[in-house]
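Let us begin with a simple case.
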Amino acid sequence: MPPTKKTPRPKALTAAHNRLMKRLGASLEDAAPSTLGHGNAVTIVCACANTSPLNLARTLKQLGVNGISFQGCVFRSVTKLGFDIDQDDIPDSPDTTLSEVVDAIEDAPAQEQS
């Protein structure tokens, strides 16, 4: 398998992503959850799609979201919070609804501590 190319992220996106991670991390300090959970999944999916939870029934195509970039954003967000998921398990087709992505990631298990 060839190495994956790292695509540069715009600084505004990186700053927004860092703010999101800070907010999510604060909610995880008190207890170590065994899965990502619905609330965190909704927050990640909406942030990566740059939309609100009111649009969970909309497809990536309807929202004008690039599936590959979106999938990468969701993957990085989930793994940075300490949960385990395969990037290929995150739907990225134009006909995928945000709700389907939430369903796919909300049960991501916590990464094993070494």
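The second case is a distinct protein. As before, the sequence precedes its structure tokens.
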Amino acid sequence: MSLYFADEYTSARPLHQRQSEIMEGRAKDELLFGRVVYHNGTGFVLADPITGLFSGISVRRRAPAGAAAMVLPAGTVESKDWSTTAEGESLEPGRSYFLQTEGRIGLVPPAEGAIIRVGRATSQKVLLVTFDLKIL
């Protein structure tokens, strides 16, 4: 199963085809595409290395606070433009990406808090989301 969104350049594919892997719920914060989030019991909020909590990666281009959000806990996410979450428009293939503040991802692990490896870029447009956690 692949999900393709209205902007025609973003897609998400669950890691296991047998499972319904896309989580849906309300956004408590404004969620932009590619941001790491967690569910706080009332809705999805932006993840941060200090809390060490995560549920998945936001796969909608934009979900305003109070709107419906879609989150992929594991799988592949493809976009022509990663600038809303990463350090540039494209990813660096073969490199690991780590959770930064405000749900962003980057190439360098944070200096404090939990080291959460979000996944690995398989191309300039595709991130394989797997989530690995190491507490400092």
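The two ends are 36 Å apart (CA to CA). The CA atoms of residues 20 and 125 lie 23 Å apart.
Keep these points in mind for the review questions at the end of the chapter.
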